[in-house]
Amino acid sequence: MTLYLRFVSAAFACTLLFSCHGPAGSTAAGPADSPAAAATTPKPVRLITLDPGHFHAALVQKSMYADIDSVVSVYAPAGPDVQSHLDKINAYNTRPKDPTHWVEHVYTGPDYLQKMIADKAGNTVILAGNNREKTTYIIQSLQAGFNVLGDKPMVIDDSAFGLLRQAFDTAAAHRHILYDIMTERYEITSILQRELAALPAVYGTQEKGSPAHPGIVASSVHRWYKYVSGNALTRPAWFFDVSQQGEGIVDVMTHLVDLVQWAAFPDQTLDYTKDIRVDGARHWTTDLPLSQFKTITKLDTFPDFLKNELPSTAATTSRPQDTILKVYANGEIDYRLKGVYVRTTATWTYKAPTGADDTYASAMRGSKASLLIVQDSAQQYHSTLYIEPVSKDPSYERTLTTGFAALQAKYPGIALKKEGTRWEVVIPDSYKEGHEAHFARVTEKFLEYVKNNDMPAWEVPNMIAKYYTTTKGLALARKHP
Predict the structure, then answer these.
(1) How far is C-alpha 198 from the geometric centre of its chain's CA atoms?
(2) DSSP string, 348-394
(3) For the whole prediction, is pTM greater than 0.85?
(4) pLDDT confidence of residue 311
(5) What is the CATH T-level fold of the domain 4-181, as seen in this structure?
(6) Which residues belong to CATH 3.40.50.720 in the chain?
(7) What's the CA gap between 182 and 141, in Å, rounded?
(8) Domain at 184-287+324-439+465-479: CATH code
(9) 226-278: per-residue pLDDT in tens?
């Protein structure tokens, strides 16, 4: 029997549309059901959430938007993934400060994808979940006439890369927007690094570097155990199956490759067939003991689909609590981007040190200065941007001060602080929004593109270039472990 519900938080109940036998607590709506809300002018964008299994799907709805209707249609298989999504939406609707007022219409039949296409209950699909079918979801959504805002990664191996290219062609043919959620472009230290790299007097020209000493290096460390919107995150078991989630080298690595392209070659169109050469890559596992797996997933045992990733002795061990899952969560890619040697590294650990969360580091080497983003214990795990001049010529300080003045006009309140031979860029807290707030920024940018149908010409080819880099890197890593 299918499930098709309309959730109303005012009564914490469901209104039957087809059949209603969902779990208690699946309430996820609010004041939008009031007569005043019903009388408002319909908004131009109506969201559909397809198979939400990742918390990023909910973070898109942590805020309300002027152009998005408050009624959202959800199509998904029944189970804990969609329930977790609805619980998060309900938490946003019922929070004391600045509550949202989403109304979720939910369909959980086994034919959820076909039902979504047939219903056409909205015009824009949000995709953030199990990545095994994501590329297929993307192209079928576009073929059905929807815009698509997709969480990274859009593709998790090179066998589906051609399908992703076809998806972009389909979007262009139908004049729809296909866009991925690149939240890290809205981190202020990355923004200012990009701005400084565009100042020849301050940065000089981009150093090409060498295989041993790349011109650009970017790395990140992510955590399996983390807090989202104030609550400890429960991850689905499939998150640790690389055939469903994807390896780290094609998942988090997407952000790193994107930031390199965006900062080093701003607003420039990249051709992956000419501008990128992947020279090498490697991947390795992070150990996840059963005890930690239980904490993260709330499951007592590893499901059967993860058994291939367990040691061969796991089935016969007398101490199952010692069983360790080996997850290919980590990867590194060495490549050349328009002749510049680049190294990107993505790793995962179980839990962050006290005071830390996910961290990011970057080094861009120019002929006059290096631009460093550091987020270590010395910075109390706060992302910090440094300018490190190549020369000890005292005249550089005057040049830097003059060039920096233009940025201060654009970003009032930023300042320079001398630290030995380098300068820290002091950034007011008002610019430090945090990762979760960046989802609203991305969504607003996407809405702008949808409304005006004017996404910059470089975005699509650069998304293709990005996913070529990650999937080619994975293929090389698996070929040469």
Answers:
(1) 25
(2) EESSPPTT--SEEEEEEEBSSEEEEEE-SGGGTT--EEEEEESS--T
(3) yes
(4) 73
(5) Rossmann fold (3.40.50)
(6) 4-181
(7) 20
(8) 3.30.360.10
(9) 999 889 999 999 999 999 999 999 999 999 999 999 999 999 999 999 999 99
